[in-house]
């Protein structure tokens, strides 16, 4: 069993490593950041880092999550208000050059690192999507979202346009874009009265 002094030293080393990783990525970028460089900045040996993390991506992900936690959605009672707040904040975060570059590099790394991919999905993207779905469930119960909608698909529809623009870099992010997504999403999500529902029809297969 570790003594209190050993635990304190361990905690200090852990914090120093995360701080060093964040500083390194901010100053020289993800590609040039190395485990050796992080260790030197933190004043620890490489083996100390590998005791807690399996790769550079794993360290940087932890550093990123330390500074940018995944929050629960606001619930003002008005889905449109909450959606506008969240999408504006998401667009602003992706428009931040250092955060965007780091996250983009992590997404590339995780294509070849199954452990990193699992961590990104379970600790970053997964919680974001689940928090969004919980807010939609609440709105659905409150009559603000159509009861027949597939909420898993709805969540992807909300964030898909942002990721599309961010990954392909087709246009810059701004508040106007976030608001446009909000307006379209609210129109698609709102309940449709029976009279307004489109009935699915089957083609007439009779031959003339």
Automatic annotation (TrEMBL):
Coiled coil segments of this chain: none
Start and end residues of each HTH tetR-type domain: 11-71
Name of a matching Pfam family: TetR_N
Feature: DNA-binding region: 34-53
InterPro entries on file: Homeodomain-like_sf, HTH-type_TetR-like_transc_reg, HTH_TetR, Tet_transcr_reg_TetR-rel_C_sf, TetR_C
Keyword Nucleotidyltransferase part of the UniProt annotation: no
Keyword Transcription: yes
Gene Ontology molecular function: DNA-binding transcription factor activity; transcription cis-regulatory region binding
Record keywords, A-Z: DNA-binding, Transcription, Transcription regulation
Name listed for the protein in its UniProt record: TetR family transcriptional regulator
């Amino acid at each position: 069993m570790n003594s209190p002094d050993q635990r304190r030293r361990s905690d200090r080393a852990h914090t120093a490593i995360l701080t060093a990783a964040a500083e390194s990525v901010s100053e020289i970028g993800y590609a040039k950041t190395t485990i050796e460089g992080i260790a030197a900045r933190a004043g620890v040996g490489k083996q100390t880092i590998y005791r807690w993390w399996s790769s550079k991506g794993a360290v940087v992900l932890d550093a990123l999550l330390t500074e940018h936690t995944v929050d629960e959605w606001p619930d003002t009672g008005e889905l449109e208000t909450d959606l506008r707040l969240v999408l504006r904040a998401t667009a602003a975060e992706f428009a931040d050059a250092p955060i965007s570059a780091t996250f983009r590099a992590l997404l590339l790394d995780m294509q070849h690192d199954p452990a990193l991919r699992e961590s990104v999905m379970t600790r970053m993207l997964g919680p974001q999507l689940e928090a969004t779905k919980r807010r939609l469930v609440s709105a659905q119960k409150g009559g603000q979202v159509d009861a027949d909608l597939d909420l898993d698909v709805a969540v992807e529809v909300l964030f898909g346009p942002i990721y599309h623009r961010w990954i392909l870099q087709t246009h810059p992010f701004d508040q106007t874009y976030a608001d446009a997504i909000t307006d379209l999403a609210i129109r698609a999500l709102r309940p449709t009265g029976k009279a307004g529902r489109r009935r699915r029809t089957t083609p007439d297969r009779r031959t003339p």
